[in-house]
Amino acid sequence: MGLSKERKAVLEGLCKQFRRTLLDTLYSVQTGHPGGSLSATEIITTLYFEVMKVDPKNPYWEERDRFVLAKGHAAPMLYIALAEKGFFPKEELKTLRQLNSRLQGHPCALKTPGVELSTGPLGLGLSAALGMGLGARLQRKPFYTYVLLGDGEIQEGIVWEAAMAGAKYGVDNVVAILDKNGVQLDGTVDQIMPLGDVKGKWSSFGWNTFEVNGHKVEEIYDAIQEAHQVKGKPTLIIAHTVKGKGVSFMEGKHTWHGKPISKAEYEAAIQELEGGR
Amino acid sequence: MAGATGKAMRQVYGETLVELGKTNPHIVVFDADVATSTRTILFGEAFPERFFNVGIAEMNMAAMAAGISTTGLIPFVNTFACFMVLRCGDPIRSLIAYTKLNVKLAGTYAGLSDSYDGASHHSILDIAFMRALPNMLVICPADGAEVKAATEAAVQYKGPVYIRIHRNECPDIPENDSQPFVLGKGKLLRSGKDITLVATGYMVHRAMEAAQILEAQGVSARVVNIHTIKPLDTELLERCAKETGGIVVAEEHSIHGGLGGAAAEAVGRLYPVPIEFVGVRDTFAESGDYQALLEKYGLTSQHIVKAAEEVLKKKGGL
Question: Using alpha carbons only, how large is chain B's radius of gyration in Å?
Answer without folding.
Answer: 19
